[in-house]
Amino acid sequence: MDIQNLVRELKVPNKSKIVMLVADGLGGLPIEPGGATELEAAKTPKLDALARRGVQGNMTMIAPGITPGSGPGHLALFGYDPVKHLIGRGALEATGVGFKLGPKDVAVRCNFCSLDAAGKITDRRAGRIPSEESGPLAVKLRQVKIPGVEVFVEPVKEHRFVVIFRGEGLGGNVADTDPQVTGAAPLDPVAHDEASRRTAEAAKEFIAQARKILAGQPKANGLTLRGFSAAPIIASYEEVYGLKAACIAVYPMYRGLAQLVGMEVIGQPTTLDEEIDVLEKAWHNYDFFFVHFKYTDSRGEDGNYDEKVRMIEQFDAVIPRVVALKPMVLIVTGDHSTPARLASHSWHPVPTLLVSDTCRPDGLTGFGEKQALQGGLGHFQAVYLMPLAMAHAERLGKFGA
Amino acid sequence: MDIQNLVRELKVPNKSKIVMLVADGLGGLPIEPGGATELEAAKTPKLDALARRGVQGNMTMIAPGITPGSGPGHLALFGYDPVKHLIGRGALEATGVGFKLGPKDVAVRCNFCSLDAAGKITDRRAGRIPSEESGPLAVKLRQVKIPGVEVFVEPVKEHRFVVIFRGEGLGGNVADTDPQVTGAAPLDPVAHDEASRRTAEAAKEFIAQARKILAGQPKANGLTLRGFSAAPIIASYEEVYGLKAACIAVYPMYRGLAQLVGMEVIGQPTTLDEEIDVLEKAWHNYDFFFVHFKYTDSRGEDGNYDEKVRMIEQFDAVIPRVVALKPMVLIVTGDHSTPARLASHSWHPVPTLLVSDTCRPDGLTGFGEKQALQGGLGHFQAVYLMPLAMAHAERLGKFGA
């Protein structure tokens, strides 16, 4: 069964509002055997109060054992099968800098590199060139002209930039040109299928012209191309859910992911408090709000248990402002676990809380991994979160007579 | 989503070791209403100690309500969809006697039977002929020669033996020749499809020559053929998981099943203690160990609750020797339930315990059916056990960027 298709058919409009608060990398692990996870250790009186009114579940993002990247994690939260709708690395990079990919686009992650006189790579990251130097160089590459193909070049940071080829008949199946070692020349772009032949040719032409433009640069006189990928074809939130959706996020990656599913990216917040300011101001203009909080993941990735605990407590502190807006459905969750103990994304399920006047409270008294195991939503797949949100918002009609 | 394909793509090598201890037929039922299951009644201090460090789940082998045979049960444990990778009865029988099936093979379960002068069956099991008599007879049938088809004959036990036809274009879809009643002649082998026509012809020729060889035998002067089946095409553990895997089992059936997925069968143990001896000796040579303990199932099949409890306690006693080896992931599970109360395999889920420094402990204090219901792995399908093992062994990369 394709749950998203079912939801699409059953959706009915109303005036209810849904808020999805995503604390990135929320789930965690104890540091010591028998200890508490970050969320269990954090003092979260506001979330615990919500837990008493709501229903929790232990949410698997993709499948048991599978650790999601940010792309698949968010697609799953948004209700899109993350295996079916795989976002290529180039497309994710373009999305991450806020580039709006269209159906005729192929995006490519590019690295500046250093080449010797023989054209062999001496440094795969162009001597860790700083963004202030690499940015203007990337912009310079916008001079490249390829007949029949529109070319976009966007700086990312340090040695990284992204190129988008736009045109008819451009497949996304082209091999990386990075030989992965120094002492070798960059490879030619080779098409893996007939549909990608024109893309490989465009890439070859791009490289030739770029090399001329970069000639004489002390560090970044060469380039490698990786992760060629066509834009994913994804139905919008409006089409699937009938929701006018807004994204409130600080980081370009999450703004880009939301844009891929047709959310409108609003505000230019730089802190969680500013994000809630944006939420309050835009409250009457949208049906659905995705609010992204980055730093739970960042401190998890740093391996800093105590700071992740503190970030969760910061997150807890803004809850009353969201509750005061009286959303019909309020969801608190993460896009994956990032236990400080592992200092990386992990496969562990994500404790998830849904609060609504229409929910069946499960009698739990606090929000956390162990409590979520006993929750009324049970152990469930992330792609069911949006259907649950829609149902609790009374935006889904009956299936069958 | 094909979870096994996903795991195959995401696997990364490392030096970690995984042990899967399978107590055959582990799950049980209370004898009296309100009573304990065999596992709950057994004194299992070692398993309970593991439970405090690990994470449990209630594992469904195939689907709710479906009782697995040993083949599907083990395939599911090994991470192969047991409905997709159905092992035919002939293939299972061949596998069970340690015959290594190849891609051109069709295996057939055969019975010696007694025929009267008119060629009608008087005893479908050849008077319960003992293995000492039937074995040499089966070996004698190796004299059969069929043009273009290689023939292998392997004794099994009592009236049972197995025949393997090897050749090009041999389909496995041939009807049984056993009429299922006495007083009737064995049926002719009939192909159910065009691809199996040559197999049916080979079988007919085999029967004709065998009848000549057996002519004059007092009990076993005839034969019936059942469960024609081509070798299942199964990717190996090495291909799928990148694991060098070893099987430690007493009984040929389980050794055969492990061999089907490319495990190396090691040692010639005859007891559980000897199995652990083999494990200890081979510890540095493999990444993954499947250790099979038969007697929990045997006593369940006997309908002997108390003895099944005792077998579980024997199983518990060897746990410290396994723990002492410090596997990165230790799994304790079964291939299905065999409640003494039903004296047969059953559909009930199997309590499953995974212990690893990377697991999220669920706070449970003992290992058993009721505790497993509250476990952090939730209610899950057996095909996810290997992905979970791989994840906890940190042998799976991130899905998507």
Protein traits:
globular; 13 strands; alpha/beta; homodimer
What does this structure look like?
Two copies of one chain form a homodimer. By secondary structure, the first copy, chain A, is of the alpha/beta class. Helix content of chain A is 32%, strand content 19%. The first copy, chain A, is built from 14 helices and 13 strands. Chain A has helices at residues 3-10, 38-41, 45-53, 70-77, 89-96, 131-140, 197-214, 237-241, 252-260, 272-282, 295-301, 305-324, 369-373, 385-392; strands at 18-23, 55-60, 105-115, 121-123, 150-157, 160-166, 222-230, 245-248, 264-265, 288-293, 329-333, 350-356, 378-381. In chain A, the strands form two sheets. Chain A has an eight-stranded mixed β-sheet, with helices on both faces. In chain A, strands 3, 4, 5, 6 and 7 form a five-stranded antiparallel β-sheet that branches. In chain A, strand 3 and strand 4 (121-123) form a beta hairpin. The longest helix of chain A has 20 residues, at 305-324. The first copy, chain A, is globular, with a radius of gyration of 23 Å. Chain A starts with a helix and ends in a 9-residue tail after the last helix. In chain A, 53% of the residues are buried.
